[in-house]
TrEMBL record:
Coiled coil: none annotated. Keywords: Mitochondrion, Mitochondrion nucleoid, Transit peptide. This is Mitochondrial nucleoid factor 1. GO terms for biological process: mitochondrial respiratory chain complex III assembly. The keyword Mitochondrion applies. PANTHER family: UBIQUINOL-CYTOCHROME-C REDUCTASE COMPLEX ASSEMBLY FACTOR 2. It comes from Austrofundulus limnaeus. It is found in: Mitochondrion matrix, Mitochondrion nucleoid. GO terms for cellular component: mitochondrial nucleoid. It comes from the Eukaryota.
């Protein structure tokens, strides 16, 4: 029976979409890693709790099959922030994450330079008057 479960999970992993813009943060990649870890011995893997395994598969299959999206259609294709699906995808992409990390580093360096600046004589500079 675990061979059947293993094949079902493999098929689900093949069907699950990949998002190349989220390297290392993609749900499909995470799912594939978890299935590989859970079924280390392939079809010969013994499942400790078969009912829980079947429930997990059914839940993932419903998510992948857009069951809830079809059951509960959205009135608009935006989130509560008002941004669209494509704008959200762009904001969560790897390129945007890298640029945000660079901005954080830039801000951090700016703050360090601002608070550690000293005059040439080794005496701290005066704070600007208000």
């Amino acid at each position: 029976m675990s061979a059947t479960r293993y094949r079902r999970f493999l098929k689900l992993c093949e069907e699950w979409p990949r998002d190349e813009t989220k390297k290392g943060r993609d749900l499909g990649m995470f799912l594939r890693q978890r299935v590989a870890a859970a079924f280390r011995e392939g079809e010969d893997t013994q499942i400790a709790d078969p009912e829980k395994c079947d429930q997990m598969y059914e839940s993932l299959a419903r998510i992948n099959g857009n069951v809830y999206r079809q059951r509960f259609p959205r009135a608009q294709d935006t989130s509560f922030t008002g941004i669209t699906k494509e704008e959200c995808r762009m904001l969560l992409s790897e390129n945007m994450q890298q640029s945000m990390d660079e901005e954080k580093k830039g801000l951090w360096k700016t703050l360090i330079n601002r608070f550690s600046s000293k005059s040439p004589e080794g005496v701290p500079e005066k704070a600007p008057e208000k």
